[in-house]
Design brief:
Layout: E1 2-4, E2 11-13, E3 38-39, H1 45-51, E4 56-61, H2 66-82, E5 87-92, H3 97-102, E6 110-115, E7 118-124, H4 129-137
Parallel strand pairs: 3-5, 4-5
Antiparallel strand pairs: 1-2, 4-6, 6-7
Protein name: Thioredoxin
GO molecular function: metal ion binding; protein-disulfide reductase activity
Domain Thioredoxin: 36-140
């Protein structure tokens, strides 16, 4: 499986059977899985959404959004619980307006699962942790 590093965004080849063995990046030597969402930007988005073979769960959010703020701990807890099955990333729609426009984001929070550049699923609005994890299981 091809994985993008959450630190340097370099691509790494990791056998599927070794995903849970705490693999490290071949370029920067940092862990490929941190158990925490990473910040997505125009510079690193395609490495994770298009080139990486791991499904990317994106939380489109903004700092001024109350529901986004209340969902943030749920998103982080889910990342800690079910990574390495998915890569988790947060995309600030205020600072990354071109990416938000590319995906037609009209309300936040919007959750999206992307793999190989294709949208596998999309959900508008926050949800409880168990409902969120249940929603994600259909994409694993």
């Amino acid at each position: 499986m091809i994985l993008a590093c959450p630190h340097c965004h370099g691509l790494n080849r990791v056998p599927d059977t070794r995903l849970s063995d705490a693999p490290s990046c071949g370029r920067c030597k940092s862990p490929l899985f941190t158990g925490a969402p990473m910040e997505l930007t125009a510079e690193n988005f395609d490495a994770h959404a298009v080139k990486s073979e791991l499904p990317l769960v994106v939380d489109f959010w903004a700092a001024w959004c109350g529901p986004c703020q209340s969902f943030a701990p749920v998103f982080s807890a889910a990342a800690e619980e079910i990574e390495p099955g998915f890569r988790f990333g947060k995309l600030d729609t205020e600072s990354q307006q071109a990416l938000a426009a590319r995906f037609g984001i009209r309300s936040i929070p919007t959750l999206m699962v992307i793999k190989g550049g294709k949208i596998l699923g999309q959900q508008a609005g926050a949800m409880p942790k168990q409902a969120f994890i249940q929603w994600l299981k259909q994409f694993s």
